Amino acid sequence: MFDSPSIIAGLEIGTSKVCAVVGEENESGALTIIGLGQAPSRGVRKGEIVDFELAAEDIRTAVAEAEQMADVEIRRVYLGVTGSHLRGLNNRGYHPVASVDREITADDVQDVMRNAKAVSLPPDHSVVHTVRQHFLVDGQGGIQNPVGMLGARVEVDVHVIHGVRNRLQNALRTVKGLQIEVEEVCFNGLASAMAVLNSEHKELGALVIDLGAGATEYVVHANGIVKHSGVIAVGGDHISNDLALGLKVSLGRAEQLKIEHGNAIHDDGVRGQTLTLNSPSGLIEKTINLEHLRRIMAARVEETFELIAQALEKEGFSDCLRAGVFLCGGGAHIPRIKELAGEIFDLPVSLATAGSLSGTTAALDQPEFCTGIGLVKFGSMQARGRTRGGRGFFNLRGALGSWLGRR
Amino acid sequence: MSDSAETNAAGKSPARFTIKVIGVGGAGGNAVEHMASAGLEGLAFAAINTDAQALSQLTVGKKMQLGEKTTRGLGAGGDPDVGRAAAEADAAALKKLCAGADIIFIVTGLGGGTGTGASPVLARTAKETGALVLGLATLPFEFEGARRHQQAQQGLEQLKGAADGVICLPNQKILKFVDERATVEETFRVANELLSHGVRGIARMLTRAGLINVDFADLCAVLRGRHAESACAVAEAAGPHRAREVVEKLTASPLLDAGQALAGAGALLVSIEGGPDMSMADVTHVMDHLNRQCDNVQIKFAAAVDASLAGRLSVTVIASRRHARVDAVAADKLETTFLTPAEAARPAARLVPPPPELTAERAGQLLQQHGGGGRTRPRAGKPQQAQLPLEIISKGRFDKSEPTLHQGEDLDYPTYSRRGMALN
Asked: What are phi and psi of A228, to 5 degrees?
């Protein structure tokens, strides 16, 4: 089926860290993570590159580390993208079956997918993904693969994720400037969901929330398909920034306070407690109120979840998420965040791990690597789709449009 | 600029409307002078002032000196009462000036004597002649001091009470249009330029028969009963990416506080004009962006095609800030959400009493405007306590990045400060 164990690399240019993950796929199609490299990110704000040179430097460091660990050379990567400009929408494509015997062929499937892709986007937007949901043949829904069926009319529901072309190109160009080829781009939220969810979760219905430093992505799966996706450009950086402003401390100190004393829920247990901050020389520099810290932080995290909950309620997904909520990204480390999410979404909540892969376990256990691992998984699926061919996976690499067929 | 005015004159619209632009006071006169020289030819211009010298320097069509007996042509000396008295003394002449116009723009600089005092009188007089009255007022620079600001705010409220709608341009925002080394002359030219853009945009919007029409009532609906400050911005772009450029210009415009005014807007009037080649995608793009910037907002939308705009796209946006008491009676308009000292609120009540020579019919109208005369008096008795903002809210490290707008809220500001959580 495959020529040799193939190497697949995923690259996530995050707001707090740049993360490169290398996976190896053996003959039977099993995926093993063999390398992971990361570097603190300096040139990214809210998930989008704001300083090319710094970002390029950090990417180089992360990729070099991953190369060293995996002992391979990374020539091409699957690149994760995010940003407030990304939007998801559902669309339906329609195609009449022209053949005499009314048998639906692979060509018909291609045509209907093309029609579904023709969404009216703002002129400066490009499609990042067209995720296939379900086919309908003569109005009968829930069909996974209509090839060979009989019908007069085939329709397909797709989930289209699109974003501003130039802003997507920024990340792409930075990577290409380092002589690394970008195999395809993938929305970070989708990659995380791919790493976190197994097919059972997807069938039951699950919400994956990736709490990054710069942006929070969320993806809803139900009945085995992607139903909804979105980005809120609010993340861990905002918590630190709120703390810095509210407690009047430096950003670095706020970051440290968030990690050491942060909590997603504010309760009365900490009333009146204070923290004493020491300067490097050991002198008492400042005393801050732990209650204020907790309240500022809880307000921000709560608001982020509430925004997602509102978006889901508007789409009417509250009933179909039986597998519950999965939290990943660095924000999943916040103590008691499960409890808070449970309160707001009124669903079972679990901290996600990319458990369905084998490899470096210490890395897999960390929720912040879900996106990177998901990108590798995405890559292996794309590669499999290409070799299999003719199943409606097309690849418009040059034009940045990449179509992800899902099964 | 001039070619569009010409088509205006050549087209069918001016036959139906007579629009008069009257500049009041020094700033108003200069602005009108600028508009006349900039070639807004479909309009009739006039200037009134108490200062004979300032008036003599203007070249606009009609000039009128106010209060020759009371001020002897020496100006109002920064006292709105003098300005008002002068205007009231010459009410008959003002009426003659306004006669025959369908729409009257009153262009004025608030804060001084003549502009602040005479504009409301002129607006009342103009209303009596049956014209629709729209005020365009500038507010003083911050360095001009608190007193002029108070006067300007009072004048603005009075003008709002008398006119059908008021759009105001705080001069402070003009500073963002000019660089540091700009001369004083340049700065004021920019102010005049912006006012003339506003007048032209609105006049065109009202007079042109468009694909989707906006009439004066729509304009008033957006302006009336809202916060005193409405913002108006006009942007124009050409070329294949004009829709995007126009949106960029609008969102970057200091007049809209770099898009913040849109986010905080309670009502929006958008007029899109383009050549015959204006595409639906252009319109969709502009409206999509504006809609995204301000959710849950009443948006009035107009579109018109003008052959003279071939290849170009011109968008006029009038945004009224969201007001907590939009539905409240008109009397509530007398309170501003600004922090004004209690002394500032009280003289306002004393200034408001109608002029002595009031007809019974006019008195009835005035009472109606103030939501029943009985209500204003007890209100003035117990002034509302102004609230100090708790602290200056900043965005910290996100100050310079693109704002994260969600339903009109900038999520980059700390949640605790947006929710008003007190930390103490």
From this structure: -160, 150
| Domain boundaries B230-324, corresponding CATH code | 3.30.1330.20
Reduce the DSSP state of residue A128 to 3 states and report it: strand
Per-residue pLDDT of chain B (424 residues), as tens digits, is: 444 444 444 444 444 678 888 888 888 888 888 888 877 667 888 888 888 777 777 777 788 887 777 777 677 777 788 888 888 888 888 888 888 888 888 888 888 888 888 888 888 888 888 778 888 888 888 787 788 888 888 888 888 778 777 887 788 777 777 777 778 788 888 888 888 877 877 777 777 767 777 777 777 777 765 444 577 788 888 877 788 888 887 777 777 766 667 776 777 788 888 888 888 888 888 888 887 777 667 777 888 887 777 778 888 888 776 554 433 333 333 333 333 344 434 444 444 444 556 566 766 776 666 654 444 444 444 555 665 555 556 788 888 788 888 877 888 888 888 887 777 6
Q: Backbone dihedral region of A272: left (phi > 0), alpha (psi from -120 to 50 degrees) or beta?
A: left
CA distances from A266 to A337, A345, B214, B218, B399 (A): 11, 18, 51, 48, 27
Give me the number of domains chain A comprises.
Answer: 3
Contact B22, B62 (CB under 8 A): no
Q: What is the ipTM of this complex?
A: 0.82
Inter-chain CB proximity B416 and A234 less than 8 Å: no
Do A33 and A45 lie in one domain? The reply is yes
Q: Which residues of A touch B406 (CB under 8 A)?
A: 232, 307
Please tell me what DSSP assigns to residue B384.
Answer: P
Q: CA dist A289 to A236, A243, A273, A303, Å?
A: 20, 11, 6, 22
User: What is the distance between the alpha carbons of residues A220 and A190, in angstroms, rounded to a whole number?
Assistant: 9
Amino acid at A233: A
Report chain A residues whose CB lies below 8 A from the CB of B281: 123
Q: Which chain A residues have any C-beta within 8 angstroms of a chain B C-beta? A: 45-46, 50, 84, 120, 122-124, 232-234, 237-238, 241-242, 244-246, 251, 289, 292, 295-296, 299-300, 302-303, 307
Out of 3.40.50.300, 3.40.50.1440, 3.30.1490.20, 1.10.490.160, select the CATH number for domain B16-207: 3.40.50.1440
Question: In the A/B pair of chains, how many CB contacts fall below 8 A?
Answer: 74
Phi-psi region of A110 (alpha: psi -120 to 50; beta: other; left: phi over 0): alpha
How near does any CA of chain A get to the CA of B396, in Å?
Answer: 6
Determine the residue of chain A that is closest to B419 in CA distance: A299
Sheet strands (E) in B224-362: 230-238, 265-274, 298-305, 312-321
Number of Cβ within 10 Å of residue B279's Cβ equals 13
Domain hosting A289: range is 236-300
Interface touch B416/A296, C-beta < 8 Å = yes
Among the partner residues B281, B402, B414, nearest to A245 by beta-carbon distance: B414
Task: Provide, as residue numbers in chain A, all residues whose Cβ is less than 8 Å from the Cβ of B285.
Answer: 122-123
Evaluate whether A7 touches A206 at the Cβ level (below 8 Å). Answer: no
CA distance readout (Å), A22 to A64, A182, A381, A384, B72: 11, 14, 15, 17, 88
Q: Which residues are A96's β-sheet partners?
A: A153
Looking at the complex, report in whole angstroms how far the Cα of residue A98 sits from the nearest Cα belonging to chain B. Answer: 32
B398 chain-A contacts, CB cut-off 8 A: 45-46, 238, 241
Q: DSSP characters for B102-132?
A: SEEEEEEETTSSHHHHHHHHHHHHHHHTT-E
| Three-state secondary-structure class, residue A339 | helix
| Closest partner CB to A245 (pick from B284, B396, B404) | B396
Q: The CATH number of the domain where A144 resides is what? A: 3.30.1490
Nearest residue in A to B284, CA atom = A122
